[in-house]
Every structure is written in structure tokens, then in C-alpha cells.
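2 proteins. here.
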Amino acid sequence: MLEGEQEQIIQIIIEAIFEKKGQDVKLLELKDLTTIADYFVICSAESDMQVKAIADNIDDGLSKAGIKVWKKEGFKALSWVLIDLSDIVVHVFRNESRQFYNLERLWGDAPIKEIIDPLK
């Protein structure tokens, strides 16, 4: 995937997160560190219902844009939903799960960009 395409996909994901009031949105750039993915998009939610709403909204936004999701996990437990697009992986966490797994610390060598809701 081209970087321009990745940027457009990330923008769709971020807009979908903020539409459902996702919090503490961060973009980790992993492309120089691993082959797992080029980017992680990470956000937090306050409840299971909000995790589901954010994840569903991301899935819907990507689908409307004709972007195929490779894999989805966590829709039963709803403490951590993962949406895998191969080169971009989205992590929607309940606050407690995000603190526990602390992906930002785990990938501490990655450049991290905090994403601010443009409507706030």
C-alpha cells in the first residue's frame, strides 16, 4: 500500500473513533521496527458498549470506502478489539485493558503521535 493510501485509511479510522467519542488516540509508526505492521492506531473507550460502537464505526467507515479488513478479533469480550488491515492495525481498548497491556511502552522505540479531536 502506498503511503498516501495509508494516510487516507488512517484518517477514516481516526474520524470513526472521534465520531464515537474515543479517547487518547495515538498513532505509532512501526515500519522501521517490525514487519508486523507499518502503523498502530490505539484508542480508549469507557465501556464495552463504547468499544463495540467505535470498532463497528471503524469497520463501517472502511467498508464504505471499499477497504477490506483482513482480520477482526475481540468482539466477544470487548475489552480489546483489534482490527487488522495488514499494514495498519487498530486497537480499541477499554481504559483498564489499555493500561494493563500498555502498547505504547511495549513499542517504546516507535515514534508516537498523539491525535487530537479536531472538534474539541
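next one coming up
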Amino acid sequence: MGRRSFATHAAVLRGVEVQPVTVEVSVSQNVPGITIVGMPDATVSESRHRVRCACKASGYEWPMLHFTVNLSPSELRKTGTGFDLPIAVAILACTGQIPIDGLDDCLFVGELALSGEASAVRGLVAYDMLAQELGLTLVSPGNALGAGVKSARVISHLAQLRQGVQELPVSDRWPLPTIEATESAALSQADFADVVDQEMAKRAFVIAAAGDHGLLMVGPPGAGKSMMAKRMPSILAPLGEAERAEALIIHSVAGQDLTSLRKGIRPFRAPHHAITLGGMVGGGRPVRPGEASLAHRGVLFLDELPEFGPSVLQALRQPLEEHEVRLVRVDGTYVFPSDFMLVAAANPCPCGYLGDPDHPCTCSPVRIQAYQSRIGGPLMDRIDVLVDVARPSSSRIIAGEKGMSSAQMAEQVREAREFASWRRSKDPDERPDRARSVPELQLDAEARSTLEGVASRLGLGGRNIVRIARVARTIADLSKENEVSRDNVIEACAFRTRATL
């Protein structure tokens, strides 16, 4: 018969966090069947049918007993199919059909097919990290090997447990990418050298990348806005180990491919303008991260910015300021990391040809005003760099000319970031520049006078003044200057103010 009760370690996803759960099984002589308690959702309740069929198909006996399964803590709602494997293990151990040695040292996660085959579930990276924190070994299906899991015992069929959990094969740890692998991954990305006759826009990209500034491109269709936005990750530094771990957890929870993240390539997300509010910031049941969180430590590209819903755009104000998304639900608050670089593109008017010397604009002033106002002032205040993108010269494109490459731009970004880091290291208060006030950004007297004059003439508010100063600070870092000069402020103003948007 085995034991009257047994418990295994499991876990449940709650947003991008994983909460430990204990699966307790008790056996009684009541009417044969399985009762699951502990606030399970419909998916977890259905596991009793999958577990029974999987055990029988794997050659185990199914005794005529009643199994009561308790998922503790009971006040935490349990969701997902990952409870199939721990419930099956607890029942088989309770009935004495598998060895119990080593079961207490494992965290079980996996879905079972009716045939006994085990398959992976969303969030295996997060489960693996929880297992390491608890001093346990993750036991997950064999298809977890390509999911970014660092270390796990691999189970592909429930029948493997007859030999004991300690006999399951151990997956290899996925290594950090080598310098050669990182360089190879960088070379495989689209290169800015393919972008011709857009040196001013490229300068704006370098400034934005060097200082983590939001960037908005405005120009007619066919000017190359989307083409340049897709190349932004190629000038950013590869993901560090901590950054990669954060991004892997979010993408694993969302069920996204992890191949590029494991290579150190920063995420690039480009949602369609028809995206819903929940799709952008997260939501659903169970609550999952949205595009703003999937872009964490990477780039969020919004093409055709005025076409996005006003509520969707305004929902980005919180992550742009606080670098996280907070969703309040009945069962509590969900917090998703959301520290991304915003890159956006927009046409100057509905037809797209306002200001284009080769194509007359057919939009009325009322339509133009309505179109441009869709972005909203609060969001525009949080975009630091604005650049006009004109249509490139057709003769240069036909001639096959090459522009400044991603490698050259990435070198400028790297040197500016290193200089900024060295500059801040000399200050006892080593806060990032985006958290500093104007006096802390080291403007010289002439630069302060110039900024005051611009702010007075244009009627700029406090947020605009601070953001111009921060962009000027980044421009000074690109030139390796300790103090922000008048020329730096003038260039920052040129990238901050424009007439059409």
C-alpha cells in the first residue's frame, strides 16, 4: 500500500514571480476518485483526469482508493497545467509504486499527456530560479532543455520514475555567451550601413542609445523610419548576466522564444497599432506580461504612433517614468519590470506628405491638428529626442552607397557610456543622469544662460527643461566633456523641439 500521505514541492506562476506550493496527497477508503482542494482553477481541477490516465498508460496500478490532494497555501489561487507532474509523483509515492529517495529535494513542474508523456509549461526559467533559491533541483520535461533552464533533471515520460528520481538525466547548464559568440550574434543583426543618406537620424540614434533617451522619428512614408528602428539593438551593448536573467524570466513566463536572449541580444518588440491596453501593459487570466514588459532591457518600437489608441499610449507614462508596470486585480497587485528604450515613428499628417517637397499634402489643417494631437502632450513630454527623417536620395540608393555602420555607432555609444560611468564615479552620489536635476548635470555658465533663454522663448515647463539638459549631458559625454557647453545645449534643443509634432 505504501504511505497514507505524501507531499511534493511544486510552484505556481503569479505574474513574473513564482510562489512555492506544497502538494499534499492523503489516501482513504472512501469512494474511489481524486478531490483537489486549495483554490484550484479549472485547469488544475482537470488534472485529476490527466493524472489517472497518464499513470495507467505508464504501467502503474490505479488502486480503488480516494485521493485527496491539497495545494498549500490554500489562499493562493493555483493556475496552470504544471501541477500534473507533482500530483502524479505524490500519488505514486503514496501508493508505494516509485522510490521516495530524493523526492523531497526536488521541485516538480510539468504537464502530462494521457499517454504519460511529459511536456514543458510556461515559465520554466522562473521555476528553475525558485528551485535554486530553495536549494531544490527542478524536475521538468525534456523539452525544457531549449527553454533557458540552467539546471534540471529531465523527465520525458512518467514511467521513468520507476527507477527513482535520482536516476533521471541532468541537463547541462546553459553558458554565458563568449565574446566570439556575442560578436557573431551582433554581426547577424541588421546593420545601419544599409541606411543611406540619414546621418542626422543616425546621430539621433547614437544620442538616444548613449543616454537611454526616448526617440521619435517624423517623416513621410518610405523614408526608412522602420528600417532604422529595427537596427537599434545592433548599437546597444549585449545583455549582461543580470539583465539576461530578468529578460529570460519575462519571456519564459510569456511563452516566447528565448534563443536571441540566450545569445545576449537585447529584445526588440514592435506591436501593431491595433494592440489592446492589456496587450501593451499586461493582463488576462492568468495575468501575463504585455509588450511593455517583453521589451524590458531592450527596445519598444511603436510605428505609426498616432494610430495607437489614446489609452494605450497614456498607459506607457508609468513604465517610462517608473520602469515598471503595476496592475491591480482582485487577488492583489502584479508588478512587471518594464525598463525599455522607446523608439517611435510617425507621419507628419494623415497622408504622410506634410512638408515633403516632392509630394503635395492633401490634408486640411483641421485633420492635421487632430492627427498630431492623438499622441498627447504627456507622452510627448517623456520623449527626449525628436528628429525629422526626410526621404533619402534615390541616386545614392541606386549607386549602392553605404552609410555609417552599426559597429561605428556602437563604438560611439560604448565610449560615451564609459565616460559617463567614469564621470559619475567621481561623484559621491552615483545616481544615473536621468535621476539628476539640472544643476547636477554640470552645465557651464554659458550653457545655463542659453538654456534659460530657450526655455523663456518657447515657454518650456520644468520637465522639458530637465530633459533638454539631460540630452545635452549625453551629447557632452559623446564628446568626452566634463561640463555641458552651449553647443551641447543648442544641439539638444534642435533634437527636442519641432513645429509639426
